[in-house]
From TrEMBL:
Binding-site residues, a divalent metal cation 1: D110, D121, E248
Any one GO MF annotation of this record: metal ion binding
Residues the record lists as binding substrate: H93, H191
Comment on bound cofactor: Binds 2 divalent metal cations per subunit. Has a high-affinity and a low affinity metal-binding site. The true nature of the physiological cofactor is under debate. The enzyme is active with cobalt, zinc, manganese or divalent iron ions. Most likely, methionine aminopeptidases function as mononuclear Fe(2+)-metalloproteases under physiological conditions, and the catalytically relevant metal-binding site has been assigned to the histidine-containing high-affinity site.
SUPFAM superfamilies (UniProt xref): Creatinase/aminopeptidase (SSF55920)
Family named by the database record: Belongs to the peptidase M24A family. Methionine aminopeptidase type 1 subfamily.
Domain Peptidase M24: 27-254
Organism per entry: Allorhizobium taibaishanense
Name of the gene encoding the protein in the UniProt record: map
Cofactor(s) of this protein: Co(2+); Zn(2+); Mn(2+); Fe(2+)
Keyword terms of this UniProt record: Aminopeptidase, Hydrolase, Metal-binding, Protease
BP GO annotations: proteolysis
Entry protein name: Methionine aminopeptidase
Top-rank taxon: Bacteria
Length: 278
């Protein structure tokens, strides 16, 4: 049975209950998420051939320092970097290093800043120079999966509706959905209930209620959905080494749908791709 609790009076730990937030929390999330969104915007001209992911990591740390905030990943469960950088067949949790990015790479950059105790969590895909049409199409499909998942969010629906919207579109495009990782509740905790699966059936999962805050972050593969985690304990890769992509937004459920907290103020939610129409 799913329990829902008033976030204002709940203990600051993941108890498995789903927190329902008020207007003050939504304002705090707007503030935190917009710092993250502005950082992701600022990375657009930086991500290019020859740049290392360690340089990206330093930029994210210094951007946070300039704004008086810390990256949530730094020293999180022993992770020693300010960002995750996942290149080509790396599904998520790629660790920055000194290897230069190459022309044709695609890289997911996942940033979370903690602002006054609130977590602004978002990620985007960045093309490195000119990329192949197959990679560009994967980015287009993955971003559309994210937006279709967001469009399914409304009070009274089930969280399974999010996954069903993502899975049905991805598979119609002959892509696959990673099952091993999911979206999650977010707020004063980095990772909270509920889990947001990116596959499933519309009538499954907890009921979506006004005041919930969570991430939607589909990982879509050109090949099969299977992944493995490398010996470093963090880096997840596609087993068949097929290209993979991910976009992530943090959203808050409103009376009529949801608010996307992490939208780019510069309209750069899908860098390197044509702007969305309408």
């Amino acid at each position: 049975m799913v329990n829902y609790i008033d976030a204002a009076t709940a203990p600051l730990k993941n108890t498995g209950a789903i927190r329902l937030y008020g207007s003050d929390a939504f304002e705090a999330m707007r503030k935190a998420c917009q710092v993250t969104a502005r950082c992701l915007d600022a990375l657009v001209p930086i991500v290019k051939p020859g740049v290392t992911t360690n340089e990206i990591d330093r930029f994210v740390f210094e951007f946070g320092m300039d704004h008086g905030v810390l990256p949530a990943t730094l020293n999180y469960r022993g992770y020693r970097h300010s960002v995750c950088t996942s290149i080509n067949h790396v599904v998520c949790h790629g660790i920055p290093d000194d290897k230069p990015l190459r022309e044709g790479d695609i890289v997911n950059i996942d940033v979370t800043y903690v602002v006054d105790g609130w977590h602004g969590d978002s990620s985007r895909m960045y093309p490195v120079g000119e990329i192949k049409r197959s990679a560009e199409r994967l980015l287009e499909v993955t971003h559309e999966c994210l937006m279709r998942g967001i469009a399914a969010v409304r009070p009274g629906a089930r969280t399974g509706a999010i996954g069903a919207a993502i899975q049905s579109f991805a598979e119609a495009q002959r892509c696959s959905v990673v099952r091993d990782f999911c979206g999650h509740g977010v707020g004063q905790l980095f990772h909270d209930s509920p889990n947001i699966l990116h596959y499933g059936k519309a009538d499954e999962g907890p009921e979506i209620r006004e005041g919930m805050i969570f991430t939607i972050e589909p990982m879509i593969n050109l090949g099969k959905p299977h992944v493995k985690v490398l010996a470093d304990g963090w880096t997840a890769v596609t087993r068949d080494r097929s290209l993979t992509a991910q976009y992530e937004h943090a959203v808050g459920v409103t009376a009529t749908g949801c608010e996307i907290f992490t939208l780019s103020p510069a309209g750069l939610d899908r860098p390197g791709l044509p702007p969305l129409q309408g």
